[in-house]
């Protein structure tokens, strides 16, 4: 063989080696020539064979899918090992193949299929057909998953969130797929819904303000105020989780995809017949549903509630909390006072179902009737006396005694004393009853001044001497003559010139039934006598002295 032929042979041989002998660290195709002892024997060319455990040909949770004659891709680690065989790996081949495929999917943001096969700290491991990815716990589902058991080994789509081939890191999400499909499903369901439509739904969650209802892939909010026409304190009173209910679509927000639902809208509105059933002034039975500082709410029927304002609760208990008069769930009789259908309000009265106690008192106790009662309170202007039906009557200071000043007379009474008094006035509208204790005794003053007239002269008896004048008595009625009225002459205006028991003629200047006093004056009597004497016996201009005139007058009286 010449040198030229030799060179050609070497070149062909070299080319043959380059073709038939694959490079280590690459993926090559091989043919399964036998399966034995749990391994597949694979011919990778150039009379090289290698062995791979059958489990490397199986997906997680599945049996190996490999048969004699199959062509498979394997990773060539080494051309020859200690046993003279090629060292090959299906798993590494799958990983290389998977990374190429996954990088393309990541770049195009397309989904990839995989299966969760293990649990690690903070999440799970996912087999993406040869490459292992990390699935964080927060990316498993749209809501926290307590038991991921049913998801293990199940082939399903994932979204790649992040990948780094050099470090061998891949992070995937199942939640992103669910949210996307959920959004599509929501859009489809919402697109098929119309406001006013009636639909079946399943109660998914209950809160204080309402319930979330699944309408087949999309949730709607059923607010507590739209559950029933009557007052609902908490949705759990009428709903249970998992219950299928019929609801009406009230409103759909196309932007936020929020759906408002109602149940009461599928029932007849009881307010349509309120004015007909509950005429003004009629009395009905109801149940107390709620008590506030300003009154109590009473349910007349399911969906129709009225308010008994605190001012309409009792005739007599004015400044008492409604909770002291009625209790929740109590059955009461109420009167319809006002109806406002526009505002859906009914004003009710509790006290109107009982007779006005002041009216009853006026009917049963005419003016002049004597009553007996306990002193409930003592004030600066009189006594309050307890009467029947929790009402009070008042004895004014001026009605306590004929003889004493009111301020003095009230000191004789104590709270809790039982007193007898006469009814003097009943004002039903103002809820006021006037009583008099002094009316039960004799009016000594009126008797005493009977027949006495202003300007008349009467004889009184001195009962006390004081610095400012003298106290006198006439027929048992006391009066007081001031110092300035004791005489016409200033020198004689001295109280001490009188003694207790003296009888004095005085002129009546005033009679005051209210203060029960007579105005008396010696000075006025003297002036009147002088005037009368002058008129009878001469003029003061004639030169005669007053002594002469009075002397003549006295002489005339004696003759």
UniProtKB/TrEMBL annotation:
The keyword RNA-binding applies. GO terms for molecular function: mRNA binding; structural constituent of ribosome. GO terms for biological process: translation. Residues 25-91, 109-175, 196-264, 281-351, 368-438, 455-523 form the S1 motif domain. InterPro entries: NA-bd_OB-fold, Ribos_protein_bS1-like, Ribosomal_bS1, Ribosomal_protein_S1-like, S1_domain. The keyword Ribosomal protein applies. PROSITE patterns: S1. Coiled coil: none annotated. Belongs to the bacterial ribosomal protein bS1 family. This is 30S ribosomal protein S1.
């Amino acid at each position: 063989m010449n040198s030229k032929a030799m060179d050609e042979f070497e070149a062909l041989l070299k080319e043959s080696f380059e073709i038939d002998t694959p490079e280590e660290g690459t993926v090559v195709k091989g043919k399964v020539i036998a399966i034995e002892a749990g391994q597949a024997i694979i011919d990778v060319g150039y009379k090289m064979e290698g062995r791979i455990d059958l489990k490397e040909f199986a997906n997680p949770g599945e049996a190996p899918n490999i048969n004699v004659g199959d062509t498979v891709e394997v990773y060539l680690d080494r051309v020859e090992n200690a046993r003279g065989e090629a060292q090959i790996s299906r798993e590494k081949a799958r990983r290389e193949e998977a990374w190429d495929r996954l990088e393309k999917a990541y770049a195009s943001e397309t989904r990839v299929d995989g299966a969760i096969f293990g649990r690690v700290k903070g999440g799970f491991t996912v087999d993406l057909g040869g490459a292992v990815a990390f699935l964080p716990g927060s990316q498993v589902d749209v809501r926290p998953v307590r038991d991921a058991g049913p998801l293990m080994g199940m082939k399903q789509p994932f979204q790649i969130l992040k990948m780094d081939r050099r470090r061998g890191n891949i992070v995937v999400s199942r939640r992103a797929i669910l949210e996307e499909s959920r959004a599509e499903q929501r859009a489809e369901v919402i697109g098929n819904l119309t406001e006013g439509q009636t639909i079946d739904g399943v109660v998914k969650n209950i809160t204080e303000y309402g319930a979330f209802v699944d309408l087949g892939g999309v949730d709607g909010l059923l607010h507590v105020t739209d559950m029933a026409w009557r007052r609902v304190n908490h949705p759990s009173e009428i709903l249970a989780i998992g219950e299928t209910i019929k609801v009406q679509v009230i409103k759909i927000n196309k932007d936020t995809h929020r759906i408002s639902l109602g149940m009461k809208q599928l029932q007849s509105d009881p307010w349509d017949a309120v004015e007909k059933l509950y005429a003004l002034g009629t009395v009905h039975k109801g149940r107390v549903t709620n008590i506030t500082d300003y009154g109590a709410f009473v349910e007349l029927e399911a969906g129709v509630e009225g308010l008994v304002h605190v001012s309409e609760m009792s005739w007599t208990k004015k400044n008492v909390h409604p909770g002291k008069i009625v209790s929740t769930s109590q059955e009461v009789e109420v009167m319809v006072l006002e109806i406002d259908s526009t505002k859906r309000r009914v004003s009710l009265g509790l006290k109107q179902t009982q007779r006005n106690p002041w009216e009853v008192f006026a009917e049963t106790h005419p003016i002049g009737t004597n009553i007996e009662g306990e002193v409930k309170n003592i004030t600066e202007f009189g006594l309050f006396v307890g009467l029947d039906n929790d009402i009070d009557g008042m004895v004014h200071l001026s009605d306590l005694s004929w003889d004493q000043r009111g301020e003095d007379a009230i000191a004789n009474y104590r709270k809790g004393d039982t007193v007898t008094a006469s009814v003097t006035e009943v004002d039903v509208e103002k809820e006021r009853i006037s009583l008099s204790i002094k009316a039960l005794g004799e009016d000594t003053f009126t008797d005493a001044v009977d027949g006495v007239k202003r300007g008349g002269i009467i004889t009184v008896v001195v009962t006390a001497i004081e610095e400012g004048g003298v106290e006198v008595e006439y027929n048992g009625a006391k009066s007081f003559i001031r110092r300035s009225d004791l005489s016409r002459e200033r020198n004689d205006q001295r109280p001490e010139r009188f003694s207790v028991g003296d009888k004095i003629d005085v002129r009546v200047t005033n009679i005051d039934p209210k203060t029960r006093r007579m105005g008396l004056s010696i000075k006025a009597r003297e002036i009147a006598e002088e005037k009368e004497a002058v008129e009878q016996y001469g003029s003061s201009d004639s030169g005669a002295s007053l002594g002469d005139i009075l002397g003549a007058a006295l002489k005339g009286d004696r003759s």
